[in-house]
Amino acid sequence: MTDHITGHHRSTSLIRRLGKDRIGALLLILIGAGIALTGMTYRMGTATRMGPGYMPFFYGVLMVLVGVAIAVTARPVDEQRGDVVPVNWRAWLCILGGLVAFAVIAVYGGLVPATFVAVFVAAMGSKANSIRDAALLAAGLAVAAVLVFSYGLKLQLALFAWG
Q1: Which among 100, 103, 134, 132 has a CA at the least distance from the CA of 119?
Q2: Distance (Å, rounded) from C-alpha 43 to C-alpha 53?
Q3: Segment 54-107, tens digit of pLDDT
Q4: Dihedral of alpha carbons 36, 40, 45, 50, sign
Q5: What is the pLDDT, as a whole number, of residue 69?
Q6: CA-to-CA distance for 133 and 127, rounded, in angstroms?
Q7: Is residue 10 scored above 70 in pLDDT?
Q8: In this structure, are residues 76 and 18 in contact, taking their beta carbons and an 8 Å threshold?
């Protein structure tokens, strides 16, 4: 909608008033709360014998906490300059692509290739990352995922699966 006095779109003025950091924080809080609430509808289990709702619940809570931290530390918006940054579609698509890749590859390829591909694709969302940097980050996080999820938490997800 357009404001008849200033001629600006209301959504743009909302972004200017709140700032992209606070809007992103609000989205993280809302999505995290939704994930946590959905996780609570499944059996939780315990830390040693996790049920299907355990990880979604705690990931949702973690998202809410990160959103709150971002909101609290967000810089004030300069109303005079109106720093409105265009959407970084490359970053969004790479992050979403990494999530989809993990979901598909984890089932058919296992934890190691799924983690590697997901992190690599998501890291390529930043123009600051080279292919080498993304591959090193992906390899490091794949090793960390094996240590934490396979050996530490004894998750029942194959490290490598062929089909």
Answers
A1: 134
A2: 5
A3: 888 888 899 999 888 888 887 666 555 555 556 688 988 999 999 899 988 988
A4: negative
A5: 86
A6: 11
A7: no
A8: no
Are the C-beta atoms of 142 and 136 separated by less than 8 Å? Answer: no
Residue 83 corresponds to which amino acid? D
CA dihedral 145, 154, 35, 137 (to 10 degrees): 0
Do the Cβ atoms of 81 and 27 come closer than 8 Å?
no
Q: Which residues, including other chains, have CB under 8 Å from residue 44's CB and lie 6 or more apart?
A: 50, 51, 53, 54, 57
The 3-class SS string of 25-65 reads HHHHHHHHHHHHHHHCCCCCECCCCECCCHHHHHHHHHHHH
Reduce the DSSP state of residue 2 to 3 states and report it: strand
Quote the crossing angle between the two packed helices 111-123 and 89-108, to the nearest 10°: 170
Top pLDDT among 4 and 113 is at 113
Closest CA to 138 of 107, 163, 102, 91: 102
pTM listed for this prediction: 0.56
